[in-house]
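ERR on first pass: missing label on line 2. Operator R.T. fixed the label and resubmitted. Corrected input:
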Amino acid sequence: MTTIKDIAKAAGVSVTTVSRALNGYSDVSEKTRKKIMDIAKQLNYSPNTLARSLVMNKSKTIGLLVSGMTRSAVKDNFTFEVMTGVNDYIAKTDYDVILFNTNSTKQREKTYSQLCRERRVDGVILQGIKTDDPYLTEVVESDIPCVLIDIPIQSDRVGYVTTDNVHGAKKAVQHLLELGHRHIAMMNGHDYAFVSKQRLQGFYEAMEEANVPIQKEWIVNGDFSEEMAEARAYELFMKHQHITAIFCASDLMALGVMKALKQLGLRVPEDVSVVGYDDILLASYVSPALTTVAQNKFQMGYEAASMLIDMLEGNEAKVVTLRTQLVVRESTAEVKKG
Amino acid sequence: MTTIKDIAKAAGVSVTTVSRALNGYSDVSEKTRKKIMDIAKQLNYSPNTLARSLVMNKSKTIGLLVSGMTRSAVKDNFTFEVMTGVNDYIAKTDYDVILFNTNSTKQREKTYSQLCRERRVDGVILQGIKTDDPYLTEVVESDIPCVLIDIPIQSDRVGYVTTDNVHGAKKAVQHLLELGHRHIAMMNGHDYAFVSKQRLQGFYEAMEEANVPIQKEWIVNGDFSEEMAEARAYELFMKHQHITAIFCASDLMALGVMKALKQLGLRVPEDVSVVGYDDILLASYVSPALTTVAQNKFQMGYEAASMLIDMLEGNEAKVVTLRTQLVVRESTAEVKKG
DNA sequence: TAGTTTTTCCAAAACGTTTCGGATTTTGCG
DNA sequence: CGCAAAATCCGAAACGTTTTGGAAAAACTA
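pass 2 clean. output:
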C-alpha cells in the first residue's frame, strides 16, 4: 500500500510538502502540487485515515447505537427508517458511521464510553434505549457529543430529536372522542420509555378536556410487543366489555390488539375502534387498515445526524421536535348506538 | 484521555510492560500485572484502536456496503434483514461494522478500493449491487477479503452466499403448473441482476419439463420496482388476455402486479394467480396474502458475516447456497375451467 | 559456588499521518 | 544591485500503540 512517503520519494520532495499539497495548503507551488497529485494518482494512493485520525485526534466517524436490530424486530421498520435517515445525511458529509448494537453481549462487557472511546468516534446517535439503561447515565456524564432519539435529555454536549408525543396522542384520543367513544382504553408501552409517559399524558389531557372519566384499570402495558399486547388485550376485553375503543402507543401493539379482538369475536371497527402510533409500514397493509399517528422516522434520523454534525462543527446541542400527523384509515368508526 | 504511557508512569514500569500486561502476555509477573490492571481501571483507561490498528495493520472493522438504504426502499425489508443478520454475527466477535452506502454521491467520487483502504477495513460484505456496477470489477481485482450476497463471483479472496434461485423459481412455476395453469407470464427484475437470470432459468426449466410452450412476449422486466411492475403488468394483461398466472421475481413487483390487476378488474386468484419471490414482511399481510418463494434473508447476512470472519482468520473463501421454500398463501388457485 | 536456565522487564523502532518552527529560495521594489 | 518580503519548502516531533531483540534479575542445577 503506497504511503505519503513513497510519493515524497518519487517526487523528490519531503513528506511535509506532500501532505500539504494533498490537503490543499497554499504554501506549495502549483508546479510541485501538480507533480505530487499526478504521482499520487499514478501510485493509486489513498490516505490512511487511521494515521490521520490518530494525529488529528478526530476520526470523522460517528457511532450509531440502536437497539432494534434483532431478528424479532423486523416487523418494526422504525429502526431501519431512522437508520436510513441518518445514513442519508451522513452520506453527504465526509463522515462515516459505525454501527454499535446494544442488547448484545458486548454491552455487558463494555461501557458506553469505552465503546465510543476505543473507536474514537467523534459523536454518537442513540436510538431505542430504555430510560433505565446504564448507558443513559453514561451519556450525560461523558463528554462525547451525542444526540438522542426520543429521549428528552439535554446538556451542552447532548441534544435530542423527538416528536410531539403528547399532542400526537391527544389528537388520536380526540379522534376517538369525536366519533362518540366514551369507553376508551389505552395500551401503553412500558415505564422505561419517555414516549410512553408522554403519550399517556396526551391520553389524559384529551379525556379530561372532554370530561370523560378515566378508568385506570383500562390502561395496561404491552411492552411495545405484539405478543404481549395481544395477551394483555385479551384479558382486558374479556373483563371489560364496555370498552368501545382503544388507543395503542405503537402500531405493533395495535396489531396484537387486533389479533386478540379477532379471537374474541369482536369486529374492528364495528365493535371496537383501534388507533395505533408510529405509522409503520404494515399499518396501511393490514386489514382493516390502521388509523394511526404518523411520525416521520426517516426525518428523525436525518435531523439527528444533521444536529450531530452541527455540534461537531462547534454549534451547540439543540432540541428538535417534529410534528406528528393523525392518519385516519379503517380501524376507527363511530361508536355503536345503544 | 489516559494512555498506556500514563499507566506506565503510574506503575513505574515501561510502556512495553503495560502493553504486554494488558494483552495477556506471559512474560510479566502476576504481581506487576495486577498492579497495572488496577491502575488501568482506576485511570479509566481504554485502548486507542486507531493507534493499535495502525501498527498492527488490521482494523478489526468490516465494511458493510448495501444499496437498499434509501428512503424509497423502506418497503423492502430485504436489506434490513440482511443487515440484522450481519450485525448479529459480528456482535459476537471483536469486530465492528462500518456502514458504507453505494448510490450516494460518495460512490461517484471514490472507488470501491479507495473507500475500503482509507478506512482500512479488514473485509467487506456487499449486498444489492448490480452486475454492471463499476464496484464489482474492483472487488475482484482488489485484494481485500470480501463476501458477496447474491452475486456468484468467486476467487481466493471473494466468496458469496446466495439461495438456490433456479430451484426456487422452478418450484414456484411448478406450483402454478400443478394448479393447471398453462398460460404463465413472468415479471422479471432487470438484466443486471444474477438472480434475475437464475430465476428466469428456473422458469424455463419448469415450463420445458412440463412441455408448456413459452411465450417470450409474456416475459417482461419490472426493474424490481413496484411502480414499474405495475405499469408493465398493466400493458401485459391488457394485451394478452389469455394469461392466467404470473410469476414475479420479487414480492415488491408482485404487489405492483396485483395493483395493476385490480385496476383491470381482474381478481386474484380467481382470474389470475400471482406468485412472488423473497417473502418480504408485506407478503403475508397484503390481501390476498401472497404465495411466494421464501428466502431466509437474516441467515444470508449471518452466513455472509460468518464466512468473512472465517476468511479473515485464514480460511478460504467459500460458496454458501441456502435453501428456499415455497410458501403457498392465497394469491394462487386452480385455473378456471373453460 | 559457579554456571545455566528461566523469568521478568525494557529501549527503541515502527505504523502513516499532521504540524510547528524555521530555512531556503524567489520575487518585488527602490 | 541590494535588501525586504513573500513564496516555497523541509526536519523533526508528535499521536498511542505493538513488537523485536536483548538485558537484568531470579531461580535452578550440579
